[in-house]
Amino acid sequence: MAKQNFSHHPTICYRPIQPCDLEILERIHADIFPIRYESEFFQSVVHERDIVSWAAVDRSQPNGHSDELIGFVTARIVLAKETEIGDLLRYDPSKPDQTLVYILTLGVVESYRNLGIARSLIRQVIKYASSVPACRAVYLHVISYNVPAIHLYKKMSFKCIRRLQDFYLINGQHYDSFLFVYYVNGGRSPCSPLELLIAVVSYMTSGLKSVAARIRKNEEKTAKWPK
Ligand code: ACO
After folding, report:
1. Are 112 and 209 in contact (CB under 8 A)?
2. Which residue is closest in CA terms to ligand 1's atom 24?
3. Which of 57, 100, 106, 216 is the most buried (most CB within 10 A)?
4. What residues flank ligand 1, with Cβ below 6 Å?
5. Is the pTM of this model over 0.90?
6. Ligand 1 pocket test, candidate residues 113, 177, 179, 180, most atoms within 8 A of CB
7. Helices (H) and strands (E) in the chain, counts
């Protein structure tokens, strides 16, 4: 991946999104997403109404631009049992108030891409989710053709657990989405029969390999010292 050439060395910092970010936040969303977001959404983000967010800014920018958004991530805390992936968590009946963090939007302006900014923003979300004891996972939807985002989530060890057909309707056309999950605080999904079988087979294979290695070692010893 080509790295961006800057006339200055960017000094990227992360902070919460504030009311003064409203205009630029709306502009970047309009520029980089094929979906239009309601103004109510942006109001909720900047006023932190049920939404947590982080902004990336370049402190080395001159002329009063050093606090201007160049990237962002927005997320909402939701009750696990009310989501489509509630059934995929290791359910603890004594804790019916388990939560999840749902990533709503993530974006980096084009000239700042491939610098690891999205990765850092996602790390902030994971760190936050891990700090909430009731939280069991971070999850999100991504449109099936968004290769950079899919690579990013895979690289960050998110698990793609579902493909949802015709999830998005954009300009009259349907597109599938992938559902990615990152478990935190022991919220791993319960073992499926297939996963159990794979675990047993790999355990047996490694056991057999070590027995075979021991036999081979003994044979080598006997061959070296025949008498
Ligand atoms: N092609 C392939 N893989 C990519 C690309 C690309 N163009 N860009 C990023 N990646 C992957 C790579 O695995 C990369 O790791 P590597 O450099 O070690 O190979 C990893 O992502 C991390 O890259 P970052 O530099 O942190 O990503 P960046 O800051 O450039 O932002 C993003 C990536 C957010 C997808 C950016 O391209 C963007 O804003 N796109 C438009 C908006 C968008 O698609 N947002 C995500 C939608 S999903 C959602 O909002 C829930």
Report:
1. no
2. 116
3. 100
4. 1, 32, 103, 105-108, 113-119, 140, 142, 146-149, 151-152, 155
5. no
6. 113
7. 5, 7
